[in-house]
Amino acid sequence: MPYQPDKCRLWTASLAGGFWFAILLASSPLSAAEDAAEAPRPEEAGAATGSAAPPDPYRDVYRDYEPDYLKLIDTMGIFHEWKKSEKEMRLSTEPRFFTLNVLDIDSRANALVEAAIEKERAGQFREALKMHQIVIEKYPLALYRVSEHGVYVPAAQYCQRRLLNFPKSDLDFYRQLYDGRAREEFEQARRNYSLIGLSEIVDSMLATSYGDDALFVLGNAALDAGHHLEALEHFEALRRFFRESELLTPALDLKIAYCRKMLGREAAADAAAAPGAEELSPEHLAVFRKITAESQPREVEFHSQHASESHFASDDYTLFPPSPDPLALETPVWRQALPGSQGELLVFSQPVVTENSVIYRHKNIVYARSILNGNLRWKNDMGGRAVWQSRNERQYPTEDLLIQDGLVFTPMSRGRGPSLVALHEVTGELKWAYGPIAASTEEEARMRFESAPAGGPRTVFAGYVLDNIEGDTHTDTEYGLIAFDSTTGRLRWRRDLGRLAPGKFATGFATRRRNRIRSFTSPPVHHEGTVYYCTNAGSIAALDARSGRIKWLIHYPYSIGETNVHDSTREFGGVQPRLNPWGPHSPMFWFNQRPLLVGEHLFVMPVDTRFLFCIDRQTGKVVWSKAKGPHPLNYGGYADGGYTHLLGPTREGHLVLVHSGRTDPVQLVDRMTGEVVWKSPDLVPRDDQPVMKYGGININPNFGGFSVNSQYFHVAARPTLTTEDELYVTSFIHTGPYTLAPTWAFNLAHLSLAERKIVAQRRYYDPLLLRAAEDEIKKAPGMLKSYLELPNPSDDLKERIRLTREIAADVVPENEHGPFLPFSRITFERFGQWFELRFGPRKVEMVFDRDAVLRAVTPQEPAASAE
Can you tell me the distance from the alpha carbon of 317 to that of 647, in angstroms, rounded to the nearest whole number? Predict the structure, then answer.
């Protein structure tokens, strides 16, 4: 069937559906480049003589790439444990750092690619293209290494981009062979108005005459949707890989300039003379040029990344409105207890606030409550109460959820493991599920979903863990990403992103455990056609949202000091101190936080490592990495920061890291370099009362004093960052076995990051701690008398006498304000009034101006007429 460019252009306009773009862009050509003879490319002449192959489409990008964490691995000191022996490195899948993550790499595909490159160097391009096509057809999912430092791309995509650099005569020969099927696919996508069909052409038929057409239409569609970043990627790929396409026109250059301008970027270098004939009239081109020149990027007051777009969520990366009650002194309008949470102090639930409801999951049960009065609207407990966290297994997953398209998406455990469920937002009834709860195959029954998905256009993207177990034999565990149609649950695509095999962990080690791999999960993030996901098993990937094609995948060193972080048959690390049940692990990893995307940088915190990675969004290169904790050179104990949260960026663009502990608990980090630009002082106010500030060692070998000024406070809830660069941090301490029951102290700090200072602090001692302090004061006179009766007191005894005398004269401390628990907070506006949701480990509270809100939502009686 011959080309029909007029119909193609008409379909482009109708598919895009934009306003002025549908008029101006509709006249751009979609036909492939003509086969007319042209002057050879600069690299073509050299290739024909066998002196060199065409330029490599990927390796040149990574030629000088070397991630900075390699220097840390090679450095002696804190990181000397990372340097593996030669024997250990034999098990590693990377030559420069240790990882056991296994990717879908086919040796046959690699051999074909290398053989094809040798044929190119010899000038035998017809033989090379046959080998490339075998890879494209038979190994579409196999990955190919493009950097010695753990960067991979699909081998099929690599081959197609090499084909596009072939001499024109050989590329034309390739297209004569394979354009027929590409034309059918393109016309079918045109008839069905299918962007997914076009994405599949880009994935598997990019080197045909229809690859540039598909990129062009995808770019137009993204442009009309207001997705300037996605459009720019398609247009720049078209200009980079199709240098003789008729689609390279002045209008395309204007589109690229427009996208760059709307993204706040500098104009690109002038493009070479466009080979395509410009079909826009001079008048239309002038209008287009004027629109591009006059358009201004939408000014955003601050960066926001919402987990459930248009709704507020406590795990959003954004700046919330300042709280009218920063120290949480106001009595809440309503409060609800969280069942079965007594004795817990860490906040795991991440609620989402919709227009009228607060929806959250707590211990495997999903609740929806009214904002105004807290009444229960619905509850879905089909999985029963279950605990998601396991301290011994280092599992601290947040109980998060996604609300989109009128549905609530969240993992729910029932039967053989956690499944992904979709609940009706208004009624809470189950709409669809995937996994063990509704398994249609044995493989689905073994699949686990332990973090909330990310949302896209009529699609949700969920990370999964698949344990391949037959009987007592654990073959391996697969980590990947699945895309579902959000309303029906229909599977769009599934992609394997790496595997771990238990044999390498437990070699020679007998165990009866059926599942021998310790797995971690965290949510993905979707942005303008790309999904970014960390497997927390040694790999991070960027995937095309429509087709699931891997754009890039990188390995990272996941283990710290030991190789058994993923070996569930062995203990990893320890708890410091062991007497404190709330003390963090050492080493302590990150929470299950979603990646943060700011501009061209992706910030990822894998759960199985202490590294924070700043990654180039387009290439997967690690721009910089930072070890978790305020004192990375003082390994051990609490040096790695304990329970830590990443926030930000602030108005100034700095990332905010909030660590547990008393030394530099808050750090502002330059997101471009990773350098710390400011460290906060201790967030906990000092207590000058002798009974609280003196420690037991200085007073009595057994009891006496609490030394609260040096105790380790844990950040137990996600801190809140405001639009005024204010920060609210809550923390707690378990003070030890001073009484038969545990005693606690809680702290709340209000910081001004703009002024680099602490604005206010609030501390609360629980009644048991105050009772213990009273007992110490009562015992002090007797201890003092016994000390004074001892002859020839040493200097140490004299010091004890002095401290005990001060304690004997002390009084029991008093709390200035009432009790509170560590909590995460969301401040937002509804009906023109402010609301504040406080979500703690034991209860949920709502604070707002009740009278003003009721006046806003209650219909007013019409005023009486003057008559």
Answer: 6
